[in-house]
Amino acid sequence: MYKRHLKRALDWTLSLAALIVLLLPGALIALWIKLDSKGPVFFRQKRVGRGKNHFMILKFRTMRMGTPKDVPTHLLTDPYAYITHSGRFLRKTSLDELPQLINIFRGEMSFVGPRPALWNQFDLIAKRDEAGANDLRPGLTGWAQVNGRDELPIDVKARLDGEYACKLSFRMDVKCVFLTLRDAFRGAGVVEGRQGR
């Protein structure tokens, strides 16, 4: 019941409420981005959604124009050469992810689920297939996120995503949200640049 109906209803209701409440803070962040560097306020990127269908994820732009496209930030040799001043704060606090409330409202994402892979992360997509995690809507946060985030190797990330798919429940979603808020305040699990992997 929760997985089939209530989860989507909660996503729609809570994302609409959050978009209304965060309208003013979002506008202030947008102004900061525009004053900080040239380029659009939003960053759009092709990601893998439910059933491996593609959609355009929305984020507040945190990197300068000319940054290599479709490359995960943790794989860039020198990400700080591309990240803007406002971007450093937005990424550390995960505020750059707020525009994904629009993706959730549209039904492309959920509050909790596997983080949406880049369209070209074929190894992660394949591992999630094996784990049964590609049938879920991707999430703003997820079980893998609160258990290591960027620090996790792909096979572990996919295994945790599969574990979430098997145990999906309202209780687990609430747990993921609370652990995400804790990690956001601590800036835990964020990796910028290659880490010798």
What features would you highlight for this structure?
single chain; 197 residues; mainly alpha; two-stranded antiparallel sheet; 4 strands; globular; disordered C terminus
Briefly summarize what is shown.
This protein has helices at residues 2-21, 23-36, 85-93, 100-106, 122-131, 154-167, 170-186; strands spanning 42-48, 54-60, 110-112, 139-141.
Task: Set out the fold topology.
Layout: H1 2-21, H2 23-36, E1 42-48, E2 54-60, H3 85-93, H4 100-106, E3 110-112, H5 122-131, E4 139-141, H6 154-167, H7 170-186
Parallel strand pairs: 3-4
Antiparallel strand pairs: 1-2
Helix pairs in contact: 1-4, 5-6
Question: Overview of this structure, please?
Answer:
There is one protein chain. With 197 residues, this protein is mainly alpha-helical. The chain is 46% helix and 10% strand. It has 7 helices and 4 strands; from the N terminus they run ααββααβαβαα. The protein has helices at residues 2-21, 23-36, 85-93, 100-106, 122-131, 154-167, 170-186, and strands at 42-48, 54-60, 110-112, 139-141. The strands form 2 sheets. It has a two-stranded antiparallel ribbon. A two-stranded parallel sheet has the order 3-4. Strand 3, helix 5 and strand 4 (139-141) form a beta-alpha-beta unit. The longest helix has 20 residues, at 2-21. Mean pLDDT is 89; it is low at 193-197.
